[in-house]
DNA sequence: CGCCCATAGATTGTCGACAATTTACGCCTA
DNA sequence: TAGGCGTAAATTGTCGACAATCTATGGGCG
């Protein structure tokens, strides 16, 4: 039996469970962005001691959802245009690389499975027109598959474990909707086609554009909010 | 007063201190690659309780120096050709990006400081011909400056906090020496020149080649050892 | 003889309390 | 009234002990 990647490992310890709960709470804005994290309060709220809670906080810091200062506590990260640009700058590059590697590394069956996934999304999208949650989940699922397809464990770790929660936080709290939703499907299709043709260079380019378009969408929302 | 980057923050807590000690021990092979980490043993050895030690272990996992399995403990990472390739594949891309950004973001004074640093290295190299430790430290210093020059905090975090200890581990344990040492200086010079000319594309290319050359050097060593 | 299972030992995960540090408040002073 | 200082409260960091889980050894069974 081969070891599954930590990113999709199910929680076994109390720290794992509380981590997932707090992650969800922060990503969905249930715990407000910029607010202070109180260890005693969270410990009471989730009914466990501070030891596993602190373990969870360490991992939250790892995925950039909180910022800790020694002896002074932790704060939930604040969303900003500058932060979004820095994050997506990196994402464009890394997921572009993931595409290039996936074009070399993914097996034909893996590629077929991703195509099947896209067809599945397309049909469910026709039914639930404009339903942004499914789009969100479907988009993530697509990106995950490509990233895993790169077969580079360090790259997988950075994207799936360390950056994606923050990406989701921007997307959930600032919303992705409008005409982007339907276009994203076409872009996904073009990307997997390039990978199927083993054209890593093109897949890289298309993924960068895909992510840049997504960034502009959120950037606009952020600026609208700011004004 | 603005906040310094965590990468060069000095230790304030016991967990910070023991982290640095264990990091050094693993990187330099003082704690053997592939060996099991025993929490009680390390706690005795560094004369502290398991709480700060576990905090340190969490961060060691973050920079890929150990691998943990829930309820089963931690092992020091094993060096391998496959791991080296995956790591350097990522490094080429990320430091290439850092160069591109540095060409846009670094101030003229920052660039001048890096040039001064290189001159300094060159003169000290002439005196200590072939001294690999200084080369090692100097090379790291150069790369750090470029990375910090990118001004992208996520990129800085990944390279300086999460990947560089492992890079150093490969370099220290498998050694960088021979003709590479003197060539690296010239390559550094060419890279900072490209950045000074605000030619991000060239700086990117040169850095990728620089890192690829370094990889081949270590790869050779690893294969010699394996046979 | 090899494989499986049970038990004993050791290790990791979790808990509650104490120590060290930071933050908040009130007081004094200029 | 604004600012600085000292104390008190709260928070974080650390400790030692207990509970849950895994590993290893030995015995039984096919």
Question: What's this entry about, in short?
Answer:
Chains A, B: Keywords: DNA-binding, Transcription, Transcription regulation. Chain A has nine helices and three strands.
Please, could you describe this protein's structure?
Chains A, B: This is GntR family transcriptional regulator. The structure is a homodimer of 227-residue chains. Chain A has 227 residues and is mainly alpha-helical. Chain A has nine helices and three strands, in the order H-E-H-H-E-E-H-H-H-H-H-H. The longest helix of chain A is centred in the C-terminal third of the chain and has 27 residues, at 200-226. Chain A binds chain B through residues 12-13, 16, 51, 54-55, 58-59, 62, 64, 70-71, 86-87, 89-90, 93-94, 97, 101, 152-155, 157-158, 162-163, and chain B through 12-13, 16, 51, 54-55, 58-59, 62, 64, 70-71, 86-87, 89-90, 93-94, 97, 101, 152-155, 157-158, 162-163.
Biggest chain contact: A-B, 28 and 28 residues
Q: How many alpha or pi helices of chain A?
A: 9
The helix fraction of chain A, in percent, is over 70%
DSSP, total strands of chain A: 3
Widest sheet of chain A: strand order? 1-3-2
Q: Quaternary status of these chains?
A: homodimer
Largest pleated sheet of chain A: 3 strands, antiparallel
Terminal Cα span of chain A: 54 Å
Overall shape of chain A: it is globular
- The SSE order of chain A reads HEHHEEHHHHHH
Radius of gyration of chain A: 18 Å
Average pLDDT confidence of chain A is 89
* Broad structural category of chain A: mainly alpha
* Uncertain segments of chain A: none
Keywords (chains A, B): DNA-binding, Transcription, Transcription regulation
Protein name (chains A, B): GntR family transcriptional regulator
Organism (chains A, B): Arsukibacterium indicum
């Amino acid at each position: 039996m081969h070891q599954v990647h930590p990113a999709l490992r199910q929680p076994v310890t109390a720290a794992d469970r509380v981590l997932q709960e707090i992650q969800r709470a922060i990503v969905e804005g249930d715990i407000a962005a910029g607010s202070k994290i109180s260890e005693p309060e969270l410990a009471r709220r989730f009914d466990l001691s501070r030891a596993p809670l602190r373990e969870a906080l360490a991992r939250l810091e790892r995925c950039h959802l909180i910022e800790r200062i020694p002896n002074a506590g932790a704060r939930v990260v604040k969303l900003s245009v500058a932060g979004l640009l820095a994050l997506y700058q990196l994402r464009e590059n890394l997921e572009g690389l993931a595409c290039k590697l996936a074009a070399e590394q993914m097996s034909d069956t893996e590629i077929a499975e991703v195509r099947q996934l896209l067809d599945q999304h397309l049909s469910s999208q026709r039914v639930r027109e404009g339903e942004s949650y499914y789009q969100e989940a479907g988009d993530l699922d697509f990106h995950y598959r490509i990233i895993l397809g790169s077969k580079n464990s360090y790259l997988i770790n950075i994207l799936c474990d360390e950056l994606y929660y923050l990406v989701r936080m921007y997307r959930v709290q600032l919303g992705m909707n409008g005409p982007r939703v339907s276009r994203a499907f076409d872009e996904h299709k073009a990307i997997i086609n390039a990978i199927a043709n083993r054209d890593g260079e093109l897949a890289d380019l298309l993924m960068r554009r895909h992510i840049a378009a997504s960034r502009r969408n959120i950037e606009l929302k952020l600026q609208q909010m700011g004004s």
